[in-house]
Structure formats: C-alpha cells, structure tokens
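Hello,

I think I submitted the fe (ii) ion job twice by accident. Can you confirm which output corresponds to this input? Input:
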Amino acid sequence: MSLITWSDSMSVGIAEVDDQHKKLVAIVNALHDAMLKGHARNVMGPLLDEVVDYTVYHFGTEERLFAEKGYPQAAEHKQLHDDLTATAKKLRADVAAGRSIISHEVMRFLRDWLSGHILSEDKKFGKWAAGAP
Ligand SMILES: [Fe+2]
Ligand SMILES: [Fe+2]
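Support: Only one job matched these inputs. Its output is below.
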C-alpha cells in the first residue's frame, strides 16, 4: 500500500508545481515500498538520494516562481525549504554512515512534512499566485 496517495485536494493550481509534487510523492512511496520489502541500504540509499536531490530541485523551482511572481512571503517560505533540506540531508548522511536506518518513523516524518508543507505553505502560494496580476 502507498504511504501517500495523491488527491486533487493537494493541488496548488500550478501545473509545474503539481507535477513535481506528484513525482516527489512517487519517490517517497517507492522508498516506503523498499523499506517494507526489507531491502538493504544498497537499494534504499539511492532512493533516499533521489528524495533529497529531487526535493532540492523542486524547492529551486518554487523559489524561481516566487521570484518571477514577486511573492511577498518568499523569504519565510524559503526558510522552511532550507530547514527541510538540512533535515533531509542530515538523515541521508546518518543513513549512509549507518547511524540511522529508514524506519516507519522516518517514513512518517517524510510523509508528514511532504503533505504538511504542500497543504499549508505551497497552497498558500498557489492561492496567492491565482490572485496575483
Ligand atoms: Fe512544494
Ligand atoms: Fe514549498
């Protein structure tokens, strides 16, 4: 079973952002599947890399849109991205070094930040962008 199921309620109304969110959900679900199947670090590691790398790429896309559209809350939103990136990179380093494993707790954390951030901050931006000139 998928960890996260995409639904239209997660749409922020910007196709480029929605497509990237769907891809992020798919990668996080793939990591979750690998964990459930008991795959070792050599399988999970590259998937976790993909989660982190795609997240960084995705945040870059959103921040480019903030700049293009002149989003007034860009700085606060970018700070949240930076915090999430730092946490995700620390997790990757801990897993790579064998200090941490991909557990249900880790997957819950990934699920909660992904859906929580999309539903609150990204939607806020989407709503603002829909009304922006
Ligand atoms: Fe996002
Ligand atoms: Fe965001």
